[in-house]
TrEMBL record:
Coiled coil: none annotated. It comes from Roseiflexus castenholzii (strain DSM 13941 / HLO8). Residues 47-108 form the DNA methylase N-4/N-6 domain. This is Methyltransferase. It is an enzyme of class 2 (transferase). It catalyses: a 2'-deoxycytidine in DNA + S-adenosyl-L-methionine = an N(4)-methyl-2'-deoxycytidine in DNA + S-adenosyl-L-homocysteine + H(+). Belongs to the N(4)/N(6)-methyltransferase family. N(4) subfamily. Keywords: DNA-binding, Methyltransferase, Restriction system, S-adenosyl-L-methionine, Transferase.
Amino acid sequence: MHNLIWFYAAMTPSLDLENQVYIDRLCRLLEEDLDFHDQDSGYASHNIHSFPAKFPPQLPRKFIQALTLPGETVLDPMMGSGTTVLEAFLLGRRGIGFDIDPLAVMLAKAKVSPISHHDAVIWSREIISNARESFFSQKRVLYNEIDRMWDEETREFVDYWFSREVQLALTALVVEINRINDENLRNFFNVILSSIIITKSGGVSLALDLAHTRPHRVDRAIDWNGCPLEMDTSKRSERRKLSKKIRSPFEEFEKKCMQSLKNMSENGLNSDQLSMRCLPNWENARMQPDISMCNAKSLLLNDECVDIIITSPPYASHAIDYMRAHKFSLVWLGYAIRELSERRKRYIGGDALEGHGFESLPGYTSSIIDSLARRDPRKSLVLRRYYSEMKAILREMFRVLKKGRVAIVVVGESKLRGQDVEIDVCLSEIGESLGFFVPRIGVRRLDRNRRMMPVGNQVDMKSQIQRRMHKEFVIGFYKPPID
């Protein structure tokens, strides 16, 4: 039995037949197998870029198909890699996606924006050819470009994590990508560039485990020609010695381009195929999603304009530190380390307390925070910030969701200082204090390799991270048809 039931009979709203049928359908969906371990999740453009803790596309697809009709609106206010928005797009719904992470916005746009397959192939060949030529014959020009790209702090970061040869190669690619006028094409190639940096282990930086947001700098490395690199060993780990062969940025870029374009073409995601789906008589006409940078605590949407919400908020206390990995790519796309550090403080689930106000929270949630305070007073304030932020987010979700519709929120179990913070119970309590009704909560077991959590498959009970990331709760927040 994979599912835990959350059911308050005394709080069940009085419903007409249509709304009762809707809730019954929702409950059946939450009772079904939500693991999807044996299913292919790499179709369309879902695998264009690594992203930690993204849920399988079958999860939003299941609820979109069962609870909405073609043409209705699907919202993900914390869209991450854009899985929900892409599924809405593929299913002929209007997708809306928001995030405050720059790479998330770029990635989601790349997944759903129409590009000409023919033009992309031509540009990819030109980018690689010209970049190689610059790398081998115009190194001085590239050095000058590097000197003007970053401030001192960002330059120190790049020098520590990227070998000099890789810096030259990536700079050559960036220069060529920036020549493209078409915004969708340029964004696509920027995402491809990012994808060869942020990988589990095989990227072009000197880091391992970037895709899990836990980067470790190697002690020894050889370049793609088999030559050893000179390494600064002043910060070498005494616990283990890490080594890596750095792959050619040009070969990795070309490989990733071709694979991504192939997947997108096979699933009707190039511009010529998409134009066919704009005809009025196309049964599931695909509508271009609306994707933008926006804080989920203050959505740029009208009241009651959304037919379903499907989202997965971040973990509390930076358990998955997105910016820690994303900055490796974003520094190549025009961002400075200081700016990214300031952005990180605003991310949901962060540890920073200054400038963050607290909401009043319901009784059981407050008792969980008070219990944690006896173990670690500061960590309890971090948890209070998290639940306060989630209250603000749920309030906005309630505002924009149509009556008689549902918000599906996928959250991972979480332990802080060894204490289960009962995230499913607390978020349900918070949601119900705002007017939602929670008829049921589904539970899904994580396939840890595919969910890309920042730990391995073997359970180490001494590891706090491992102890809090083995299952997720799928909470159904239903907005009653009456106030």
